[in-house]
Design goal:
It is a single chain. The chain is an alpha+beta fold. Helix content is 33%, strand content 27%. The chain has a four-stranded antiparallel sheet with strand order 2-3-1-4, with helices on one face. β2 and β3 form a beta hairpin. The longest helix has 20 residues. It starts with a strand and ends in a 16-residue tail after the last strand.
Length: 96
């Protein structure tokens, strides 16, 4: 599993201009099964995406399609981890 942390590198005005395209991109990635959760950081300095893609290379290909990345609005930090324990609500995320 991967945690992607986006940090905005431009004013929120520019982010808001492309937000509808970014939301469409996210919806498309959910439909393809590439993302399992996403949302804004508090305070609003960026966002977080969770992905169960099976390689960082595939994830990078997907992230390169994000309008925020295409237009250089955010920096992307990718961290991989293996969820070995979960609550019963998230047992489907657990990996052996």
């Amino acid at each position: 599993m991967f945690i992607v942390s986006l940090t905005y590198i431009v004013d929120l005005e520019k982010v808001d201009e492309l937000l509808p395209l970014h939301v469409d991109y996210l919806k498309n990635q959910y439909e393809k099964g590439n993302f399992i959760a996403s949302g804004r950081k508090i305070p609003r300095t960026g966002g977080i995406v969770l992905s169960k893609l099976d390689s960082i290379e595939k994830l990078e290909e997907v992230l390169n399609q994000d309008p925020f990345k295409i237009n250089n609005l955010a920096e992307y930090k990718i961290e991989e981890f293996i969820p070995s324990m979960t609550s019963s609500d998230f047992v489907n995320l657990k990996e052996e």
